[in-house]
Design brief:
By secondary structure, the chain is α+β, with helices and mostly antiparallel strands. 16% of the residues lie in helices and 36% in strands. Keywords: Glycosidase, Hydrolase, Signal.
């Protein structure tokens, strides 16, 4: 197959806040039209003279799939934006930045085609300097169709899938300019990306900091970039050593003294700021200091074993589709944190920067995944498909590698990992991930590793990753024991489990399923976490979807109404239990940190007993503390740092 890579001149920028001569929002009102028979190119819809004034008006970010005028449309659509731009200052260049466009995009400025991009969840930039004028027409052609060459997409012919299932993927192809758009003006020599690796010495309490700075159009005669580290706006003294690199790439290394090191974890998500100055350009980005590692069957955060609950959150909300506005995101993440869903393979595709910013600031641990949803062996062996996946994967990694919340990369979900092609894919993409970012763990979500036909560790691709992620729906104890027999020295993360609302007679059936699953998980000390499928119901075309268009797996409904399953999850995955005894007009309340699943050290929690508040400085797994409170209290609450109530208990009078 011939692939046209013309115009793929894209610049990825890192997570961070960049000081530019200007950053002009271009989201807001755009002109919009469907192009179902693909006439836009040949009829010059992209030209400034094209009469788009009678087109519909939409507000970007915009998901045409949920716009009632174009509901669930699949195909080509066009967006046009008119804007003014003053003459660029001398020594500056201009870039268009799209935070996400699903799925394929072609970009024209003033009638000149400047670029194309494929991949629906990550940002891209295009240099538009030469095309700009005082009056500008920006035209964007968007196509959200899928086939066997898109990621995600349809399957090539396989004997293990029905034809109707093989043609679709199980979430809606929400098309449009789903996130913000900016015109960015920056110096000709600018900071293209910054990668920070902060590695704490858990014995000395110091931390080594390695910062790689890539500068576009670098002048070799200029000095290396300057770097300053701040904690809570206080400058931290660091002596930086510069290591020579290739032209335009600089590495700075330094050590933070023990007094300046505060480790990031789920209860104390301490963030630092790094300010990088290269010539006339400045970039500020946040990072955290933490150590994530696997040792045998344990997952360690800062040297301490952790075992946690988590969730999968399909990006789907009524009337918003995959746009994920702040009001929805904040609501969901507060429910996730209050449900102790703190270790999550949260999506099959790259999530928004805003989600990861929240996770950094509030203490969520994320396994970030890109692209490969059930690619077939033929697709995984196809060099073009491998290159497309690597492109989307690298865009995710280079955008997200400074987020302390991201602890691992996943190279796919539910592909045929027992086949030679699946094994080769895993081995190769593991190496690719480590090449991009050797500081993080790598895994993939396997639907094969627990099956009885996998007789040896060499028979399945989980042998190649840092820890095992397994999707399973029932027979949990037997499946987990089988995995452990194959890989006795590997940690296991249950990346999917759960049951649909229509898979049982009533919600109590789902509650019983969860309670039994937890009993099984707690018998397996090699299980480091379990992630429910799913946090929320989501729309789908996949066979087996309900007549209302939703797949009802959620702890919450599409509108985020809490089901009983959510409250049971909250109780089962609370990191501590509460027990009460009454003596006269006094209550004795014992807070006990769980020592099975979940299991981790509690820091700075609070116990609320009626109108009284008790500080719980620290509880290690298996430890307990007892507090005496007034007997008139009718309710207890266990509250995480940040104010998240993770457990409530009523007290009978």
């Amino acid at each position: 197959m011939k692939v046209n890579y013309l115009f793929l001149i894209l610049f990825l920028l890192p997570f961070g806040i960049q000081a530019q001569a200007s950053k002009t929002p271009l989201h807001g009102e755009w002109a919009f039209a469907l192009d179902p028979v693909n006439i836009g190119d040949r009829e010059d819809w992209y030209k400034p003279t094209f009469p788009s004034n009678r087109w519909d008006k939409v507000t970007v970010p915009h998901c045409f799939s949920v716009d009632p005028r174009y509901s669930l449309y699949t195909g080509t659509a066009w967006y046009i934006k008119k804007f003014k731009q003053t003459k660029l200052p001398a020594g500056h260049r201009a870039f268009l930045r799209f935070e996400a466009v699903f799925y394929k995009a072609g970009i024209w400025v003033n009638g000149k085609k400047l670029g194309e991009h494929e991949g629906g969840y990550t940002p891209f930039e295009i240099d538009v300097t030469e095309a700009l004028s005082e009056e500008n027409t920006l035209a964007l052609r968007v196509n959200n169709a899928w086939d066997t060459t898109t990621i995600p997409g349809a399957k090539t012919r396989v004997n293990f899938e029905n034809e109707n299932s093989a043609q679709v993927f199980p979430w809606i192809n929400y098309g449009g300019i789903n996130r913000e758009v900016y015109l960015i003006v920056r110096p000709t020599t600018f900071i293209q990306r910054v990668k920070i690796v902060a590695d704490p010495d858990l014995i000395k309490k110091t931390a080594s900091i390695q910062v790689r700075v890539d500068v576009a159009n670098a002048d070799a005669s200029k000095p290396a970039p300057a770097l300053t580290i701040y904690n809570n706006k206080t400058k931290i003294p660091v002596k930086w050593k510069s290591k020579p690199g290739t032209t335009g790439s600089y590495t700075l290394e330094g050590t933070l003294a023990a007094k300046d090191v505060k480790l990031w974890n789920q209860d104390e998500p301490v963030l630092y700021d790094a300010e990088v100055v290269a010539g006339a350009d400045t970039l500020r980005t946040k990072f955290g200091i933490r150590k994530v590692e696997v040792k045998g069957t344990s997952l360690l955060l800062n040297g301490e074993p952790i075992r946690m609950g988590g969730c999968n959150r399909p990006l789907d909300y009524p009337k918003y589709g995959s746009m994920d506005p702040a009001i929805v995101l904040e609501q969901d993440l507060n429910l996730i944190k209050a449900g102790s869903m703190e270790l999550s393979r949260i999506s099959h595709y790259p999530v928004s920067t805003q989600l990861l910013d929240w996770a950094d600031a509030h203490g969520l641990l994320i396994i970030a995944e890109a692209g490969n949803w059930q690619l077939t062996p033929k697709q995984m062996a196809d060099p073009v498909m491998r290159k497309k996946f690597q492109s989307q994967f690298s865009e995710m990694v280079e955008r997200d590698w400074n987020h302390p919340s991201v602890i691992a990369w996943s190279v796919g979900n539910e592909y045929q990992s027992q086949t030679p092609e699946g094994q080769t894919w895993t081995k190769d993409m593991y190496a690719y991930a480590k090449q991009l970012d050797p500081s993080r763990l790598v895994t993939f979500a396997s639907m094969m590793v627990w099956r009885e036909n996998i007789k040896t560790a060499e028979g399945e691709a989980s042998q190649y990753v840092d820890f095992i992620s397994a999707n399973m729906y029932g027979n949990y104890l037997a499946n987990l024991k089988h995995i452990h027999e194959l890989y006795p020295n590997k940690a296991v993360y249950v990346s999917e489990f759960g049951i649909r609302t229509d898979g049982v007679k009533n919600e109590q059936g789902r509650v019983d399923h969860l309670v039994k699953a937890m009993q099984d998980f707690r018998q397996c000390d090699f299980v480091v976490g379990a992630s429910v499928w799913t946090f929320n119901d989501y729309q789908s075309r996949f066979p087996g979807t309900n007549a209302n268009g939703y797949r009802p797996w959620g702890l919450v409904s599409p509108e985020r109404e809490l089901r009983d399953m959510y409250f049971t999850w909250q109780e089962e995955f609370s990191p501590a239990t509460l027990s009460v005894t009454r003596t006269g007009n006094k209550l004795s309340v014992t807070v006990s940190a769980r020592k099975d699943l979940p299991s981790y050290t509690l820091r700075n929690y609070k116990l609320l007993c009626g109108n009284q508040t008790f500080d719980i400085a620290q509880l290690k797994p298996g430890e307990s503390k007892t507090f005496e409170c007034e007997g008139s209290a009718t309710q207890l609450s266990l509250v995480k740092p940040g104010g998240f109530t993770v457990l409530k208990k009523s007290i009978g009078q």
